[in-house]
Every structure is written in structure tokens, then in C-alpha cells.
Amino acid sequence: MKTLRLFSFTRVGLAAGLFATIALVSGTIAKPAAGAMAKPNAPTDNGGASNVGEAVCIKCHKPENTQFSHTLHANAFRLNPKNEKEKLSCEACHGPGSKHIEDTEKRGLLVGFTKEWGTPVATQNGMCLQCHSGGNAMHWDSSAHGRNQLACSDCHNPMAKVSAAGLLKKPTINETCYTCHQQQRAEFAKRSHMPLPEGKMSCADCHNPHGSTSKSAMKSDSVNELCYNCHADKRGPFLWEHAPVRENCLNCHNAHGSNHDKLLTVARPFSCQQCHGNTNHQGPLYNAGQIFGGGAAPNSRALGRSCLNCHSQVHGSNHPAGARFQR
Ligand code: HEC
Ligand code: HEC
Ligand code: HEC
Ligand code: HEC
Ligand code: HEC
Ligand code: HEC
Ligand code: HEC
Ligand code: HEC
Ligand code: HEC
Ligand code: HEC
Q: Is the dihedral of CA 60, 61, 63, 68 positive or negative?
């Protein structure tokens, strides 16, 4: 987490600083009018510039145009533009270019999406959100990524076809996320994990990188609803419910990875004993001989599946006599 926090801190500091400076100089942060909210991500006109058309841009930016021509945007904007905005091509994203052509060195006259160019993140994102504010990006402003001043172009590269889908910056979704989320990379490398490193799942199966109304940008209302999407057998309904399962799968499992089998947060039997340990056979095994044999018979509470040797239906049971989850 250290790298991530460090990263987000500098990023916020930098972006906020830049934004504040520009706002001070140009006085662009007006107080929101009564009844209206200030739009955090508004498109810009590059200091009053006008559109020149892509043919002009391409004269000086041939290599960029060659790469761009292979993308979905180029196809959509050139072959089948749905509105005036899309017809603008380059200038739909970079803003009107007349002033940039007059002075190609001066940075405030065009929206650039590279760090070196220095356009404030909110302005960059405002260009993309002109067309992509609905649907999946609806919760962008309140998302952790939005609040931490991530740019759309931290994950997307609309200028080149790097990924098979999604115009991502890296060939796959997972690699895109791993550029910042090293801790989650480590978690998925543990002994027990869902088949994400094997390429059968992605972070975006469970998270919406553009934010959602749930905790941790989950793609569902609750952890359990998320898990039921793929593990429908755990949804029930069961005649005999096990309370902690109904409450939250993460009472016993990690979502990303664990060194205990079956993604358990704690090894068995301790996993069960966190909550059950008061009576009879549920509690600690006092005698090492009970665990390893040592003369007496090995104890079935410690070996193999441990408590589940007998309580095998720990997620719930539909058997009339399954109150103790033994069948
Ligand atoms: C006369 C040549 C010329 C024309 C025409 C021109 N540019 Fe540029 N553009 C440049 C040069 C030179 C730079 C690099 C300036 C620098 O790095 O200091 C540049 C920089 C840029 C950048 C910033 C790249 C970065 O580092 O992020 C973008 C984006 C860009 N141009 C887009 C456009 C678009 C869009 C048009 C058409 C509206 C356009 N340019 C027209 C010469 C031109
Ligand atoms: C859909 C939005 C979009 C459109 C349309 C678009 N660009 Fe870009 N452009 C970007 C983004 C985002 C980047 C930053 C890419 C990155 O992260 O390297 C970029 C980067 C650039 C750069 C900097 C060099 C580079 O490749 O990183 C230049 C120059 C540029 N664009 C010119 C153009 C020209 C010329 C066109 C039209 C032919 C165009 N762009 C169309 C979004 C767009
Ligand atoms: C003028 C409108 C417009 C702007 C501005 C724009 N886009 Fe798009 N974008 C489109 C259209 C049209 C498509 C084609 C797919 C569709 O119809 O939704 C698209 C598709 C995409 C896709 C989906 C690719 C896929 O494989 O499904 C991504 C990602 C994307 N845009 C990101 C961006 C980013 C990032 C920016 C800003 C740098 C941006 N767009 C700016 C109109 C726009
Ligand atoms: C943290 C990384 C990340 C950031 C930041 C990000 N995206 Fe995405 N975006 C993705 C991923 C990953 C996908 C592919 C999702 C999938 O295939 O399920 C995607 C898909 C999309 C799509 C394709 C259609 C859709 O909605 O699934 C659009 C459009 C898009 N993003 C626009 C944007 C815009 C606009 C921004 C900035 C406001 C942005 N994205 C910021 C990671 C990101
Ligand atoms: C450019 C860096 C960067 C990239 C790339 C990135 N993230 Fe993040 N992510 C962050 C930062 C910064 C935070 C906020 C972390 C914090 O507050 O500690 C965050 C937070 C999150 C959170 C927690 C959200 C919450 O509401 O608490 C999730 C989930 C997440 N990211 C998923 C993803 C996924 C999925 C991808 C890939 C599609 C991705 N991230 C790519 C930087 C990034
Ligand atoms: C099987 C679903 C699933 C997958 C796949 C998944 N996550 Fe998560 N993630 C979760 C759940 C569940 C949480 C915790 C939700 C909560 O806060 O209760 C979470 C939490 C997070 C958080 C918040 C901090 C934390 O660790 O609790 C980040 C960041 C995150 N995930 C990033 C990622 C990234 C990056 C990937 C891909 C490498 C990924 N996740 C893949 C389900 C998933
Ligand atoms: C997008 C689909 C998907 C979602 C959502 C999902 N899983 Fe999984 N899960 C899988 C797949 C695929 C496997 C591997 C199944 C196999 O190997 O037979 C798996 C395996 C598991 C395993 C067994 C791991 C092992 O080591 O054998 C556990 C435990 C698990 N998931 C728990 C969860 C929990 C808890 C959630 C919710 C946070 C969740 N899953 C959400 C797809 C998903
Ligand atoms: C009380 C602790 C506990 C809770 C809560 C719990 N599980 Fe489990 N889960 C286990 C144990 C223990 C195993 C290992 C079972 C075995 O060895 O047969 C397991 C195994 C699994 C497996 C892999 C084997 C199988 O049965 O398919 C999946 C998938 C799984 N759990 C999903 C979930 C989901 C989804 C939830 C939330 C609805 C959940 N679990 C809640 C304890 C729990
Ligand atoms: C997060 C706490 C928690 C964990 C972890 C947990 N349980 Fe439970 N368990 C409960 C609660 C609460 C009940 C309901 C108790 C009641 O109704 O009196 C329950 C009920 C039971 C019952 C039925 C007991 C009865 O009195 O009806 C059995 C058997 C059981 N659990 C076994 C297990 C096993 C085996 C594990 C380990 C895989 C486990 N539990 C893990 C909280 C937990
Ligand atoms: C050898 C089989 C076996 C093993 C192993 C086992 N149990 Fe039990 N458990 C039982 C039986 C039999 C009952 C009583 C069932 C009844 O009354 O219907 C029971 C009942 C329970 C109950 C209900 C309350 C009570 O004490 O009567 C809980 C909770 C429980 N076990 C938890 C555990 C935990 C935790 C473990 C692991 C440390 C465990 N069990 C291991 C057989 C076993």
C-alpha cells in the first residue's frame, strides 16, 4: 500500500497545486451561481481558439495520426460521426487548435494528455466526459479514482491500439491496474486465488474503475451479491442458514488471495474457532497428541478439512436434519 499512498499523495498535491495556480492566474473558478453546481470537469476552448480541422493537425503530427488511425475513435469519428462534436476528430479531445498552431510551444493553448504537457487533470477529463459522462462513468466524480485526480489517460490511451478492447494503456485490464496496485498484484500471487493471474478473470469483473455507489467501487450493492454473480450455489435459499455466510462472505474469505486454502482468511480450525470456542468439541485442542496422532487417534477436528470433516455444509444446508450443517 505504501507505494500507492505515496503515489496518490504526490499526484493529488501536484494536480491540486497546478489547478490552484491556474485558477488564481486566470480567475476561472467562479463561485457557483445560486442553485447551480460548479462543474468540476468542464471542456475548454483553449483560450478562445477555433477549430481548424484534422487535415491541418496531421500536417505536423503524421506519426501520431498513423497510430490514431487504428483506433475505435478514428473509425467512429471519420467513418460514421454521430454528431458535430465527433466530426471534429483531433479537436474533439484536444480542443480547438487555432491558437496552438500560432504558438506550438505555449502549453495553455491546447489540451495535452501527457504529464509533460501539464494540462490540469480536471480539464483533460472534461474533454472525455463531454461524450462519456453517462453509463459506466456516471459515478466518476465521487469515485476514489476521480477524487484522487486520476486522469482518464492514466488507464486509457485513445491514440494507439495497445489492448484488444477498451483502448487501454496496457495490453490487458489487469496489467493496467497493476501499474498502481502492487499490493493487489501480490495478493493474487498467493497460493489460493481466483483465476485472475491465469487470465480467466479481471479486476473489472468485480470493480468498476470509474466508480460505483458501493464500497470499494464494487459492481454490485454488497459483497455477497458480487460473489453470487459467479457462485450462485451459495445464494440459497437454505432451510438452515449459517449467519456469517448470509452476512458477508469476507467473514471467512479474502477476495484477492490467501496463503490458506480456499481463500480462507485464517487457517482451519481457527477460522471457525474465531466465533465458536465456548463449548465441548469446538474449542482448542489441548493435547498435541490429538493433532498428530502421537499414540492416540488423530483428531478429526484438526486433520484434513478439520471442522468440515463433519460440518461439511458450512455455507448452509437444505437437508431436513441439516441444522448443524453436517449434511
Ligand atoms: C505547425 C505544426 C503544428 C500543427 C499544425 C499542429 N501542431 Fe501540435 N504540436 C506541434 C509541435 C512542434 C508540438 C510540440 C511542442 C512542444 O513539445 O513544446 C506540438 C504539440 C502538440 C500536442 C502536445 C503533445 C504532448 O506532449 O502532450 C498535442 C496534443 C498536439 N500538438 C495536437 C495538435 C492538434 C490536435 C493539432 C490540430 C488542431 C495540432 N497539434 C496542430 C506542431 C503542430
Ligand atoms: C479520443 C480522444 C483523442 C483524439 C480524437 C485524439 N487524441 Fe491525441 N491524445 C489523446 C490522449 C489521451 C493522448 C495521450 C496518450 C498517452 O497517454 O500517451 C494523446 C496524445 C497526443 C499527442 C502526444 C504524443 C503522443 O502520442 O503521446 C499528440 C501529438 C496528439 N495526441 C495529436 C493528435 C492528433 C493529431 C489527433 C487527430 C489525428 C488526435 N491527437 C486525436 C486523445 C485524443
Ligand atoms: C466527441 C465524442 C468523444 C470524445 C470527446 C471522446 N470519446 Fe471515447 N468514444 C466516442 C465514441 C463515439 C466511441 C465509440 C464507441 C461508442 O460508440 O461508444 C468511443 C469509445 C471509447 C472507448 C471504448 C473503446 C472500446 O473498445 O469499447 C473508450 C475507452 C473511450 N472512448 C475513451 C475515451 C477517452 C479516454 C477520451 C478522452 C481522452 C474520449 N474517449 C473522448 C466518443 C468520444
Ligand atoms: C483506473 C483505470 C481507469 C480510469 C482512470 C478510467 N478508465 Fe475507462 N475503463 C477502464 C477499464 C479497465 C475499462 C474496460 C472495462 C471492461 O472491459 O469491463 C474501461 C472502459 C471504458 C469505456 C468503454 C465503455 C464502458 O463504459 O465500459 C469508456 C467509454 C471509458 N472507459 C471512458 C473513461 C473515461 C471518460 C475516463 C475518465 C473520466 C476513464 N474511462 C477513466 C479503466 C479506467
Ligand atoms: C494511476 C494509478 C492507478 C491505476 C492505474 C489504477 N488505480 Fe485504483 N486507485 C488508485 C488510487 C490513487 C486509489 C485511492 C487509493 C487510496 O485512497 O488509498 C485507488 C483506489 C482503488 C480502489 C478502491 C476504491 C474505493 O472506493 O475505495 C479500487 C477498487 C481500485 N482502485 C481499483 C482499480 C482497478 C480495477 C484498476 C484497473 C482498471 C485500477 N484501480 C487502476 C490509483 C490507480
Ligand atoms: C472476485 C472479485 C474481485 C476481484 C476479481 C478483484 N477484487 Fe478488489 N475487492 C473485492 C472486494 C470484495 C473488496 C472489498 C470490498 C469491501 O470493501 O468490503 C475489494 C477491495 C479492493 C480494493 C480496496 C482496498 C482493499 O484491498 O480492500 C482495491 C484497491 C482493489 N480491490 C483492487 C483490485 C484490483 C487492482 C484487482 C485486480 C488485480 C481486484 N481488486 C480484483 C473483490 C474483487
Ligand atoms: C466473475 C466471477 C467470480 C466472482 C464475481 C467471484 N468469483 Fe470466486 N471464483 C471464480 C472462479 C472462476 C473460481 C475458480 C473455480 C474453479 O477453479 O473451479 C473461483 C473460486 C473461488 C473460491 C475457491 C478458491 C480455491 O482456492 O479453490 C472461493 C473461496 C471463492 N471463489 C470465493 C469468492 C468470493 C468470496 C467472492 C466474492 C467476493 C467471489 N468468489 C466472487 C469466479 C468468481
Ligand atoms: C463461516 C465461514 C465461511 C463463510 C462466511 C463463507 N465461506 Fe465459503 N468456504 C468456507 C470454508 C471453510 C470453505 C472450504 C470448504 C471445504 O473445504 O469443503 C469454503 C469454500 C468456498 C468455496 C470453494 C468450494 C465450494 O464450496 O465451492 C467457494 C466458492 C466459497 N466458499 C464461496 C463463498 C461465498 C460466495 C460466500 C458468501 C456467500 C462464502 N463462501 C462464505 C467458509 C466460509
Ligand atoms: C463470524 C462468526 C462465525 C464464524 C467464523 C463461523 N461461525 Fe458458525 N455460526 C455463527 C453464528 C452467529 C451461528 C448461529 C448461532 C445460533 O444460531 O445460535 C453459527 C452457527 C453454526 C452452527 C450451528 C450451531 C447451532 O447452534 O445451530 C455450526 C455447526 C457452525 N456454525 C459451524 C461453523 C464452522 C464449522 C465454522 C468454520 C468453517 C464456522 N461455524 C464459522 C458464527 C460463525
Ligand atoms: C467428528 C465430527 C465433528 C467434528 C470434527 C466437529 N464437530 Fe461440531 N458437532 C458435531 C456433532 C455430532 C454435533 C452435535 C450435532 C447435534 O446436536 O445435532 C456438533 C455440534 C456443533 C455445534 C453446535 C453447538 C454444539 O456444540 O452442539 C457447533 C457450533 C460446532 N459443532 C462447531 C464445530 C467446530 C468449530 C468444529 C471444529 C473445531 C467442529 N464442530 C468439529 C460433530 C463434529
A: negative
